[in-house]
From TrEMBL:
Name this protein carries in UniProt: Adhesion G-protein coupled receptor G4
Originating gene: Adgrg4_3
Gene Ontology CC: membrane
Record membrane topology: Multi-pass membrane protein
SUPFAM superfamilies: C-type lectin-like, Family A G protein-coupled receptor-like
Domain Ig-like: 147-230
Pfam families: 7tm_2, GPS
Keyword Methyltransferase: no
Source organism of this protein record: Araneus ventricosus (Orbweaver spider)
Domain GAIN-B: 553-717
Lineage: Eukaryota, Metazoa, Ecdysozoa, Arthropoda, Chelicerata
Length: 1030
């Protein structure tokens, strides 16, 4: 689904189609297809028989066939000329005309139409260009790598004055994004599939009109959480939307939470079933003691931490009083309960202290004693955070926050307070906290805004708690109607200072994320309430520009957007009498927003008076740190805006990157406050992007909110920040240890002439040289993206030494095969020269080919100095996987040779079987390290198992060099003796030629003695290469 249009295709096809039934002329239909933000045109791929036959099957599935149905296609007839407009030079070779087609028109357009009466077939025909027909749009490339997901748009409304007897009109729309199986949308309420015939379900829409009833139980069953789901085809998975709450208006809903000890935690359901009769009896008794008209229902029961939890829902009509008043009535019923109530609580094994009455809307005002301090927390809606009325700053520098947790099922409750209050040293913090506690009204809003401006602009060092108090002040201001322009100016200067402030990296980002969202929302609400007196109001700072365009349905001059040319300048407003193209006004600009003409037409009957456009730099504490464009906030009225068609167009200035890579790396997104437990996050649902040029990105979105462009290689593939930090620490520690170990190997090779005579030590030296070069360049240069050519040099060297490391691992695998498997006849003349030619030459050839094809492939410096994804799979993944596959084959041969494949007939050993098994297991483990088999974890780090394999990859791969040093150098007694003798200044001992088994076993062997000595030599060679007993 793209901008409320359902596109369809077969799973194996690249092309997809949109079928429109409403009538348009041929030119209108063609323009409508081309107006999509994606590349589409009228249907044209039916020019070949195979494609045409397949499309007819799809069309039969999508549309109900009524006599006379017809749709425009991209076929055009001009007198005697007939052509497909996308391929005008090609002759139309395949046709499927309807029998009564009129070919005598001067100009006409092609249509697909239902055949003659009684037929259920599709034929071609021609229609006059002014005829109004349906039409079919086609996109040639429908590949979408973004994950499939689904969400619900809640369009529930209150009944109009004419709709008497109606309480509420439930209206939910299931909005899929990405490819999914047609017809797979399902609806659920409280986790159960909806099959009630009272619901009206049509395609992706669920609706219900609730009527007034005397029995409250008749409608309570419709109150609760709704979800929808779709089926993803490959790999198959049912994808669920976030849940949406529907509450019946005019009702107070409370949760009676009771908990007791569970007798058997291992059998929770059995414990609950024993108590359910008493819970039902309790609900019946509550109806007797609570005011008339109330209803009590057991909502849920569960076991947690050896406790049984009961959640009763108690409903009251709002006519009986306010929420706090009714809550007091319920609490008194339990405080002064009668004997029957006390007996039922006893049967449930519930103590009065374990009973709480919770609102389903907000956490109550609470006086909290914390570390010998009294903190008063205000009423706070579920999902939001609050600051105490008293000043309390943590040791990290944050204002102490507390979140209202819970939901409609379990009620609202406060999160625990886990931090202590520290001494406040800043007068700025004290003054901002006092201002945040001030009750801001129309009389004092100007003075309050000016005081806030003075405080934030005169102090240089804003800390995170100061930003939180600024957010609270703005939140208090947004409820004031008819705000003067002077207040807006003070607010803009304040937010400009906040964006400029360099918040300490040690401060808590989650608190700042929350504050930034409140600042953004408050700015929009304040701008909407500004008195414009029919004039455009503009304010700007170095990091923010605000434009408020007045709107009235009585005027002909209608605002259509705005453009910010440079930071520090005002937004240039666009109206319906001016050119909408920003490039006609400016050569370059920071950001632009273009509103479709019909958007304001939809709002003519609403109370929209102002259209605010806010363009700001990314506030540095927004949760997604990869925002690389300005942020645009735009709203029209206070109600949500859905299905904007044609969509809103936004253009952002972004860092320069090759156009061919822009769509792969950049994503248009909007801020969705419902994500991450209401802390908010960036989402790309309802937004699509296309490039403009090397420095600008165009976004199309079908709703209004905060928009930006983020850098995202693969949407949905991010890992949590804590894991990113852990993986980075593991990587740096592992690489440092490996550099030390590899350096020790190289020094040993250089220092001892006799040690470097061995062929295996020469191979080990070259492998160490390749690995240490790769690791050093990785640690020093991978993030040095400032210089284009310097970054390219790093990428080239990384590519070369990475491939060299794998070629030398393959050489090591070959050496191990000769030493541990073949054993006899293993002498190869000039082995080391041939190995060097292969191991250093093959990577050089691959890197050279990439450089000759396009050296810009090494300039993918969006975040790291590395190859672009365009060539990565061919130049890195393919050769690395090939060499790993060969290493695994050789490893399997070695494993077989050391276990099932060895002969014991002539074997003589003083080791028992257990010791022998342990020694062989150690040998196999060490060979796996030498062959770099752990690199396979990097290719397995996908989908659900990604995080696990990333940790395995980081731990095993980065420490490979250190482990090679430990097992192949340090644990070798002969090598240790060399270093000991060097330290003692004594002559170095001869190195045992047993470690040179590859060549020794190939000489001096008599053909007649081979059979009798083979097993002894083989076993000796296998165990002597890796020594574990020194």
């Amino acid at each position: 689904q793209i901008f409320s249009k359902s596109w369809n295709k077969f799973a194996h096809q690249n092309s997809c189609y949109y079928v429109e039934k409403s009538g348009r002329t041929w030119k209108e239909a063609s323009k409508s297809c081309q107006a999509f933000p994606v590349k589409s045109s009228l249907l044209q791929s039916i020019q070949y028989l195979e494609d045409y036959s397949l499309f007819k099957v799809l069309l039969h599935m999508l549309t109900p066939f009524l006599q006379g149905s017809s749709w425009w296609i991209n076929l055009y007839q001009d007198k005697d000329s007939l052509k497909w407009l996308n391929f005008p030079e090609e002759t139309v070779t395949f046709i499927d005309w309807e029998a009564h087609t009129n070919f005598k028109m001067n100009q006409s357009g092609g249509v697909l139409m239902l055949g003659s009466p009684g037929e259920n077939s599709i034929r071609w025909s021609l229609r006059d260009l002014s005829s109004e027909e349906g039409f079919i749009c086609e996109m040639q490339d429908c590949s979408d790598t973004r994950p499939t997901f689904v969400y619900i748009e809640d369009r529930t409304t209150s009944p109009t004055a004419e709709e008497t007897g109606i309480i509420s009109k439930l209206n939910l729309h299931c909005v899929p994004s990405g490819w999914f199986l047609s017809g797979s949308i399902s609806w659920f309420k409280d986790g159960f599939l909806i099959e009630d015939p009272l619901y009206e379900i049509s395609m992706n829409r669920l609706s219900l009109s609730l009527k007034t009833t005397k029995n409250l139980m008749d409608i309570l069953r419709f109150q609760g959480y709704y979800r929808c789901s779709i089926d993803r085809e490959y790999p198959f998975k049912q994808v669920f939307s976030p849940k949406v709450l529907f509450k019946i208006p005019g009702l107070h809903t409370f949760v009676l939470h009771m908990k007791s000890e569970a007798s058997e935690v291992s059998n929770c359901s059995h414990s609950i079933s024993l108590k359910l009769p008493y819970a039902d009896a309790l609900n019946k008794h509550l109806l007797e003691i609570l005011p008339k008209g109330s209803v009590a229902i057991l909502r849920d029961a569960s076991c947690t931490d050896s406790k049984l939890h009961y959640y009763d829902h108690i409903y009251f009509s709002e006519e009986l009083g306010g929420e706090n008043e009714i809550k007091k009535v319920i609490e008194n019923s339990f405080t002064f309960g009668n004997d029957v109530l006390l007996e039922l609580l006893k049967q449930l094994q519930v103590d009065k202290k374990d009973i709480s009455i919770r609102s389903t809307v907000k956490c109550p005002r609470e006086k909290f004693y914390h570390n010998r301090r009294i903190l008063n927390w205000p009423e706070t809606p579920i999902g939001q955070s609050a600051l105490p009325e008293e000043i309390c700053v943590t040791v990290e520098g944050d204002a102490l926050e507390r979140k209202c947790l819970g939901d409609f099922d379990v009620g609202a409750y406060w999160s625990p307070v886990k931090k202590d209050c520290d001494v406040v040293h800043s007068d700025l913090t004290v003054n901002l906290q006092k201002l945040a506690r001030t009750n801001i009204t129309a009389d004092n809003i100007l003075n309050s805004s000016l005081n806030m401006e003075i405080l934030t602009t005169t102090w240089k060092d804003l800390r995170s708690m100061d930003v939180q108090y600024v957010a609270q002040i703005l939140r208090n201001m947004e409820s004031v109607p008819d705000i003067k322009p002077q207040v807006l100016r003070a607010v803009v200067n304040t937010v400009d200072s906040v964006i400029t402030a360099k918040i300490s990296a040690s401060d808590r980002r989650i608190a700042l994320t929350n504050a930034s969202c409140r600042i953004s929302a408050a700015m929009e609400n304040i701008a909407t309430s500004v008195q414009t007196d029919g004039q455009v109001i503009k304010e700007a700072g170095n990091n923010i520009a605000v434009c408020i365009m007045p709107y009235s349905s009585n005027v002909t001059l209608i605002p259509t957007g705005g453009v910010l040319e440079n930071w520090g300048s005002n937004v240039t407003t666009l109206f319906n009498d001016s050119d909408r193209d920003p490039y006609s006004h400016f050569e370059t600009f920071e950001a632009a927003v273009l509103l479709p003409d019909n958007l304001l037409a939809q709002k003519q009957n609403s109370s929209v008076s102002n259209i605010p456009i806010i363009i700001r730099r990314n506030i540095n504490f927004l949760k997604n740190i990869d925002v690389i464009s300005p942020v645009i906030d735009v709203s029209v009225g206070n109600e949500p805006v859905y299905d904007v068609d044609p969509p809103i167009e936004l253009i952002f200035k972004v860092p320069e990157i090759p156009v061919k890579q822009k769509e792969e790396f950049f994503q248009c997104v909007f801020w969705d406050q419902s994500l991450n437990d209401n802390y908010g996050g960036w989402s790309f649902k309802g937004c699509y992007n296309s490039y403009v040029d090397s420095t600008h990105m165009r976004c199309f979105c079908n709703h209004l909110t905060s928009f930006a462009v983020i850098l995202e290689l693969k949407p949905g593939s991010e890992i949590l920040k804590v894991h990113q930090t852990s993986l980075s620490i593991i990587t740096y520690i592992g690489c440092s240890l490996s550099i030390f170990g590899l350096g020790a190997i190289i020094v040993t090779f250089i220092a001892f002439r006799k040690w470097r005579k061995d062929v295996k030590h020469k191979v080990l030296f070259n492998l160490s040289l390749a690995l240490i070069s790769f690791l050093l360049i990785f640690l020093i240069g991978i993030e040095k993206t400032e210089s284009r050519y310097g970054c390219m040099a790093v990428a080239v060297l990384l590519h070369y030494f990475m491939l060299s490391s794998f070629t030398w691992m393959l050489v090591e695998a070959f050496m191990q095969y000769l030493s541990l498997v073949k054993v006899i006849g293993t002498y190869i003349p000039r082995l080391i020269q041939k190995a060097m030619l292969f191991a250093w030459g093959v990577p050089f050839t691959i890197v050279g080919i990439v450089l000759c094809i396009n050296y810009d492939l090494y300039s993918s410096r969006h975040k790291y100095c590395w190859l672009s994804d365009n060539i990565f799979y061919l130049a890195v993944a393919a050769p690395v996987l090939s060499m790993l596959a060969l290493n695994f084959v050789i490893f399997a041969l070695i494993l077989y040779s050391n276990t099932c494949g060895r002969s014991t007939k002539y074997l003589r050993t003083n080791q028992n079987e257990r010791q022998e098994t342990i020694a062989r297991a150690k040998a196999v483990f060490c060979v796996s390290i030498l062959l770099g088999l752990s690199w396979i974890f990097g290719f397995l780090a996908v989908d659900e198992a990604k995080l696990i394999f990333q940790y395995l990859f980081a731990i095993t791969t980065t420490s490979q060099g250190f482990l090679i040093f430990v097992f192949f150098v340090f644990r070798q007694k002969s090598t240790r003796d060399l270093w000991l003798n060097l330290v003692r200044t004594a002559p170095s001992p001869e190195i045992s030629h047993i470690t040179g088994g590859t060549e020794v076993t190939s000489r001096g062997l008599n053909h007649r003695s081979v059979q009798s000595r083979l097993s002894r030599v083989t076993y000796k060679a296998k165990l002597s290469y890796i020594s574990f007993n020194g």
